[in-house]
Amino acid sequence: MTFVSARPLGRTQLHVAPICVGCAPIGDMPDTFGYGVSEEQARSLLRRVFEGPFNFLDTAAAYGDGESERRIGLVLRELGGIPAGFVVGTKADRDLATRDFSGDQARRSVERSLRLLGLDRLQLVFLHDPEYAVQPFEAIMATGGPVDALLRLKQQGVIEHVGIAGGPIDLLIRYVETGSFEAVITHNRYTLLHQGAAKLFDVASRAGVAVLNAAPYASGLLAKGPAAYPRYAYQDASADVLDRARRMAELCDDYGVPLAAAALQFSLRDPRVGSTIVGMSRAERVDDTLRLATHPIPDTLWPQLEALGGLSEDPQSDAQAALRSAGRPARAS
């Protein structure tokens, strides 16, 4: 797999690497990730990212309530703008305090993103986590609602391409089927342990909508291992999940394959996935990720790993319900 060569992202005019650098961690959100990220650490990472080989960055208005975008903007100013061949995608968010996601709120979110990033137009903007808005699906999609606002900004040339990003798979399918979006992001729902997003991938592929798969490590469990990080999708993992992850780690060890390499390549090898979003917080993670993405994995390992996966429940359903009632974002993809 060639990572220095970008490929078309669905029907957009964008060309991106198979791996996208997830910039949620540089929003400095210790409550979500369990660690903080200083501004200098973040800027060091971003300078390294803009050297390649991954030409795609993903952020959001909600990541650190603008801190991720602000830090990216600082480095973009150093570079004189987005370097040629790079793509920076962001997400329009609801009001994090009131959970309002009106058309006006979507416009305010985009305007702030432009200001923080130091740009006069955005290449790719996703409607982010509409499941947490006070407005229902019908209002989100209605004339004057946030989707309409984003599409009008696209018509005005402020946004080049519009996507949808969220959690619940059935809800994402409903949005994709409206025909309003060019790309979709799902997170924590297509990993070695849980493949609930597979049906979304099929629907999106048939519709010509690009699929971005975020959090292939399930927030860290499949990167650090169940002993070091006994959490799945930013919450405590069940005994069953930890047992499966431990058996996967042992199986990978028998083959001399890092569990993280198998977790990452599980997403990369799926032809329906246009790019896999991997969160990064340190400059050395760029080279670490490239090594994991290219680590040799015997064909005989895959069916054995897949036999240990296949969780049927939504890995974030309980956390989503609790955080929705509190008006807080459930995660950063």
Descriptive report:
- The chain has 333 residues and is of the alpha/beta class.
- The chain has one domain: TIM Barrel, CATH 3.20.20.
- Helix content is 41%, strand content 15%.
- The chain has 14 helices and 12 strands.
- It has an 8-stranded parallel barrel, surrounded by 5 helices.
- Helix 7 packs parallel to helix 8 and helix 10 runs antiparallel to helix 13.
- It starts with 6 loop residues before the first strand and ends in a 7-residue tail after the last helix.
Please outline the helices and strands.
Elements: E1 7-8, E2 15-16, E3 19-22, H1 30-33, H2 39-49, E4 56-58, H3 67-79, E5 87-92, H4 103-117, E6 122-128, H5 137-141, H6 146-155, E7 159-166, H7 169-176, E8 183-187, H8 198-207, E9 210-214, H9 221-224, E10 231-232, E11 235-236, H10 239-255, H11 259-268, E12 275-279, H12 284-294, H13 301-308, H14 317-326
Parallel strand pairs: 3-4, 3-12, 4-5, 5-6, 6-7, 7-8, 8-9, 9-12
Antiparallel strand pairs: 1-2, 10-11
Helical proportion, percent range: 40-55%
Could you name the CATH class? Alpha Beta
Count of discrete structural domains: 1
Strand order of the largest sheet: 3-4-5-6-7-8-9-12
Notable features of this structure?
333 residues; 8-stranded parallel β-barrel; 41% helix; TIM Barrel; globular; two-stranded antiparallel sheet; disordered C terminus; alpha/beta
Brief sketch in words of this structure:
With 333 residues, the chain is an alpha/beta fold.
